[in-house]
Design brief:
Layout: E1 2-6, H1 13-24, E2 28-30, H2 31-41, H3 44-55, H4 61-72, E3 81-84, H5 90-102, E4 109-114, H6 117-126, E5 127-129, E6 136-138, H7 165-179, H8 182-189, E7 192-196, H9 201-212
Helix pairs in contact: 1-9, 2-3, 4-5
The structure holds BIS(adenosine)-5'-pentaphosphate.
Length: 217
């Protein structure tokens, strides 16, 4: 399954990508996670991306396109992948299509997770992440066993820098201006599936699987 998950900040792309990647045994490729790791490691990419991400702005297309191209050529992605947070602009989608066409492995489906704005804000404000292993929690919906501590590795949980209200506003605007038009782009290709992103994560996962079923291998 070659799948793209679309949706505004907090729609649950990362949560669904993890569940689906486990179900299908394919890698979860998150450009947000790759960029956050680069910032943490202090690489050249991280130095360029970090300030933009903190403000909630998009990182330049050429930077993310080359990251994804390289990642999809890794052997573990040969049997499929779940893309989370990429593409985010029409030029990124065009570059992705070109790269996949060269390798004769086009996208099977694009799923857009639809969530009302009040729910997005509530999810983002309650999100806590583990800086060590990347686990994601929510203070109410999915709390860790011990408050503020990662269940898996015991590290202190943190709030993402771009989850502050000013950055969230910028991210929502970037989604509306640059990413939402991708629904039209993939709609024209006949591979867009719109799924209600409200409900228990497992119920949403089942709805995604149902939506893309004809192409599930
Ligand atoms: P990225 O990390 O991709 O952030 P995002 O798209 O804003 O998405 P989020 O991670 O906020 O939300 P999500 O939809 O994954 O939701 P989650 O599952 O965590 O990108 C960050 C930045 O990197 C960008 O702003 C940009 O600067 C840069 N960037 C990345 N890709 C780029 C690209 N292609 N081009 C240019 N720049 C790029 O869930 C959110 C919360 O809700 C969690 O607490 C979770 O536990 C909870 N939750 C999830 N599902 C449910 C549910 N069903 N019910 C209740 N709670 C739920």
């Amino acid at each position: 399954m070659n799948l793209v998950l679309l949706g505004p900040p907090g729609a649950g792309k990362g949560t669904q990508a993890k569940l689906l990647a486990m179900r299908w045994g394919v890698p979860h490729v998150s450009t947000g996670d790759i960029l956050r790791q680069a910032v943490k490691d202090g690489t050249e990419l991280g130095k360029q991306a970090g300030p933009l991400m903190a403000e909630g702005k998009l990182v330049p297309d050429d930077l993310v396109v080359s990251i994804v191209r390289d990642r999809l050529l890794q052997p573990d992605a040969a049997g499929g992948f779940i893309l989370d947070g990429f593409p985010r602009t029409i030029p990124q989608a065009e570059k992705l299509d070109q790269a996949l066409a060269r390798h004769k492995r086009p996208l099977d489906a694009v799923v857009s997770l639809e969530v009302p704005i009040e729910t997005l804000v509530e999810r983002i404000s309650g999100r806590r992440s583990c800086p060590r292993d990347g686990s994601v929690y929510h203070v109410v919906q999915n709390p860790p066993r011990r408050e503020g501590v990662c269940d898996l590795c015991g590290a202190a949980l943190v709030q993402r820098e771009d989850d502050k209200p000013e950055s969230v506003r910028t991210r929502m605007q970037a989604y509306a201006a640059s990413t939402a038009p991708l629904k039209g782009y993939y709609g024209k290709q006949g591979i867009l599936h719109v799924v209600d992103g409200v409900g228990a994560p497992e119920a949403i996962e089942a709805a995604v699987v149902q939506a893309v079923r004809p192409r599930e291998r």
